[in-house]
TrEMBL record:
Residues in coiled coil: none
Gene3D superfamilies (alphabetical): Spore Coat Polysaccharide Biosynthesis Protein SpsA, Chain A
Organism per entry: Candidatus Roizmanbacteria bacterium RIFCSPHIGHO2_02_FULL_37_24
Location of the Glycosyltransferase 2-like domain: 5-168
SUPFAM superfamilies assigned to the protein according to its UniProt record, in alphabetical order: Nucleotide-diphospho-sugar transferases (SSF53448)
The protein, known as: Glycosyltransferase 2-like domain-containing protein
Pfam name, any one: Glycos_transf_2
Alphabetized InterPro entries for the sequence: Glyco_trans_2-like (IPR001173), Nucleotide-diphossugar_trans (IPR029044)
């Protein structure tokens, strides 16, 4: 398989070790300034893995771009370090892309705590949020043959994409740092009429927020900032004006989530 897995990590040594054990591809790990011995573990236990070392946390988006620039594989497997791919799932996604030449990217069914976390998402441009497509949608609402048309974007939790397309569309916007960079990317991909969809017989297990849970209010702050960034960058001015009340109200919901998280942390 002409695939390189790119895995950003920040102080996630134990999870990363488990993640790597399940891979049978070339691997590039981008370490964002870990202080928990991650780099030392990689060099001693996995000497064949290429390690890109950043002196500080450069974020998920830049880390993926760094890896993408330094490899020559036909496909990139973008992977969170807290995501564990199930047996044969990489091969199934790879075969899906080989069979469907018009499909440029795919993801497995992502599980979290024995429930389907995502097979992709829709973007609600009226309010500026994503609606995750889960088990309810995939089993009850949509025939499998039509799921690709229903899904607006895929999750970078575990994403197999043709490298030339990733580079051509401009990779991830590094100003996002972390979170929602995949939503921004798939908005751009969607506008260019590229096709993509999930591989429904492939799966992975995701330890949701395993890294960000150690970083205080970081995720909540990023959600608020990056949704504003998505709206300004991707939505036409007349759309923003027309739907400003709902867009503004949803940002208040983001702010409310941030404030609640701050209160809980200090109780």
């Amino acid at each position: 398989m002409d695939i390189t897995a790119i895995i950003p990590t920040f102080n996630g040594k134990k999870l990363l070790d488990e993640c790597i054990k399940r891979l049978d591809t070339e691997i590039v790990v981008v370490d964002n300034g870990s202080t928990d011995g991650t780099v030392e573990m990689l060099l001693s236990k996995y000497p064949k893995i290429r390690v890109i070392k950043n002196s500080s946390n450069q974020g998920f988006a830049k880390a993926i771009n760094q890896g993408a620039r330094q490899v020559q594989s036909k496909y990139l497997l973008i992977l969170n370090n807290d995501c564990f791919i199930q047996k044969d799932s990489i091969a199934k996604m790879h075969n899906f892309l080989k069979r469907h030449k018009d499909i440029v990217a795919t993801q497995p069914v992502v599980y979290s705590r024995e429930r389907i976390e995502s097979i992709g998402y829709q973007v609600d441009t009226w309010v500026g949020k994503v609606n995750i497509v889960t088990q309810h949608h995939s089993q009850l609402s949509i025939p499998n043959s039509k799921i690709e048309r229903y899904i607006y974007g895929l999750s970078a939790t575990c994403l197999l994409i043709r490298r030339d397309i990733f580079l051509k569309v401009g990779m991830f916007d590094e100003s996002f740092h972390s979170y929602l960079e995949d939503v921004d990317f798939f908005i751009r991909l969607h506008k260019k009429d590229y096709q993509y969809g999930p591989t429904l017989d492939a799966s992975c297990r995701h330890i949701h927020m395993a890294t960000s849970s150690k970083m205080g209010l970081y995720k909540q702050k990023q959600d608020l900032k990056n949704w504003i960034r998505i709206i300004i960058k991707n939505f036409p001015p007349n759309h923003i004006i027309k739907h400003f009340p709902t867009l503004f109200f949803e940002r208040l919901r983001n702010l409310n989530g941030l404030l609640k998280a701050a209160i809980i942390r200090h109780v």
